Amino acid sequence: MITLYGFGPLFGLPDPSPFVLKTEVQVKLADIPFGKARATPKDAPKGKLPYIEDDGETIADSTFIREHIEKKYGADLDLGLTRDMRARAWAIERMLEDHLYWAIVHLRWAEERNFAKGPSRFFDILPREQRETAREAGRRRILESLRAHGLGRHSKEEIEELGRRSVASLSALLGNKPYLMGPEPCGVDATAFAMIASLLTPWFESDLRKYAESHRNLVSFRDRMLAEHYPGFLRKAA
Ligand SMILES: N[C@@H](CCC(=O)N[C@@H](CS)C(=O)NCC(=O)O)C(=O)O
């Protein structure tokens, strides 16, 4: 039995991490029974969530988790896709995970108000006397990663401009189809849902979120995937 380790519901989302959301939806798409548990990045083999445990095996990183479930359970999340479509799905995933994700990191961690009501709360579980130091060190470390990625070297306006390009591209690629590759969901829909839901959550203020909201097809896509995969979450939020 698979146990998926994530942060737990936060920031108006079933999980604050788009990578945990992606993995959860992919496991659901593969129709494999699983349980969920809370962890922190410190518990994770690669220092990041998600990771899974499956009959004594521990697998970290959403892409390797997908590979594991496809191999072990004989699931193909891209069933029916041509080689060309599979290649496009991979390219879309890379745009979302290695580009748009970092614009989301910027709006959550660099923007003072968003940080205060968002990631800053991660540190509230620590003893009071350690909290402030850990909060500052944690924020500094994430902003250093953003800088090392490259996006963090730009101004806020430049980061938003680049983020808008990925949002507009995703919207154009989705068009008026229900899912990115056609009438049925495939692996990359989980990633797209995860990233767009993370951007659209009303918990955080940003021009990039407003820009995403102006793309009706992305909002409907998020709503459809949420209703399909998190009906309980929607009922609680209502
Ligand atoms: N490549 C990883 C990325 C996972 C990731 O970046 N997780 C973030 C949360 S969204 C994390 O745990 N960060 C903790 C940290 O950097 O300390 C995957 O696909 O799983």
Report on this model:
The protein is built from ten helices and four strands, in the order βαβββααααααααα. It is of the alpha+beta class. Strands 2-1-3-4 form a four-stranded mixed β-sheet, with helices on one face. β3 and β4 (57-60) form a beta hairpin. The protein is globular and about 55 Å long. The protein starts with a strand and ends with a helix. The mean pLDDT is 97. The structure holds glutathione. The site of glutathione has 11 residues, from α1 and α2.
Strand content: 5-15%
Characterize the overall form. globular
User: What structural class do the secondary elements suggest?
Assistant: alpha+beta
> Can you count the beta strands?
4
Low confidence ranges? none
Using only C-alpha atoms, the radius of gyration works out to 18 Å
Mean pLDDT rating: 97
Number of helices: 10
Q: Cofactors and ligands present?
A: glutathione
Name the helicity range.
55-70%
